[in-house]
Amino acid sequence: LSMQFSKPFSLGDTIKAGSIEGQVVEMGITTTCLLNAEKFPVIVPNSLFSSQVIVNKSRAQWRAIVTKIPLQ
Asked: What is the pLDDT of residue 39?
């Protein structure tokens, strides 16, 4: 219930909680479904979110990009 009131993330957000990371595609009373980087569904019990730090990457005001630029 605390997750429903605090709204740490919404549908479509990309989040990371502990070692689990993905895009939120479904939120239920007891579980949340994420799509991981390989586009596989990951069913996460909502109790996990109360014991983990949640990073909501979709709400970041800036994003880092790492790229290699070849120089000659």
From this structure: 94
Cα gap 68→3, rounded to integer Å: 39
What's the pTM value of the predicted model, to 2 decimals? 0.72
Using the 8-state DSSP alphabet, how is residue 18 labeled? T
pLDDT single digits (tens) 3-31: 555 678 899 999 999 899 999 999 988 99
Q: Exposed, middle or buried: residue 55 (CB in 10 Å: 0-12, 13-18, 19+)?
A: middle
Helix (H, G, I), strand (E, B) or coil at 5: helix
CA dist., res. 22 & res. 2, Å (int) = 21
Determine the Cα angle at 44 with ends 38 and 46, to 5°: 150
Structure tokens at 66: 């790492």
